Amino acid sequence: MYYCNFFLAKGFVQCKLSDPAISECMRNELQRATPYLSKGIPSLGLLPTDPLRISSLTIDKGIGGVNLKFKDLDILNMRSTIIKDLTFDPKNFTLNVAIVVQKPIILEGQYETNGRVIILPINGNGTCRFTLDNYKSFSVVKMKPVLKNGITHLEVKSLDFKFTTSKMHLIMNNLFNGDKILGDNMNLFLNENWMELLNDMQPAFEKALSVAFISIAQEFFNRIPLNQIFID
């Protein structure tokens, strides 16, 4: 009922599971839903996806030996997402989707770090800002229908998520207990060697985002029966 009231009132349609062009239908409808989802849908209990809040994220020592902890990390500009490709297998309920984001992805929040970045020691805590240019991602979402209280809903079994960026810019404030010279030099070094830093950070970022996206999708599926998402 909520689905019909919210989506159909804004011109959205349900895709037919038997439609040979179901992938195209889903791509069009998800693209159309993006600006609404980014604001959140209180009637469905869906929180905003722009900004998307990650309450905590920990990156243990990787190849470079850096420890990073983030708190209250906000991810901005997801509303500018363009779905470039989408395929859906209605028999196995498997979704493959590739997106690009028209604006740079920005991550802002609190950080705490110690360890080594490549060859240099690093420590500090404070605010930070990471910017990802030309962000692209590819996701594989596996779902299954489940019966709950006599009503069939979708359940997310897994979400495999990978992203790429052409450039990462960053600034970490209050490095080395606020020593401006050391902090400025470290930020310069990090920006010049952003690929090495990203290699350490990326697996944890991808895992954290996968968990966040699963939570968002599952909250939606918990509230909306399968027969209100798709037409048989």
TrEMBL record:
Q: Where is coiled-coil annotated?
A: none
Q: Which UniProt keywords apply?
A: Biological rhythms, Signal
Signal peptide extent? none
Keyword Amino-acid biosynthesis attributed: no
Keyword match Signal = yes
Q: Which GO terms describe its cellular component?
A: extracellular space
**GO terms classed as biological process:** circadian rhythm
- This protein's source sits in the domain of life called Eukaryota
Query: What's the family?
Result: Belongs to the TO family.
What's the name of the protein? Answer: Protein takeout
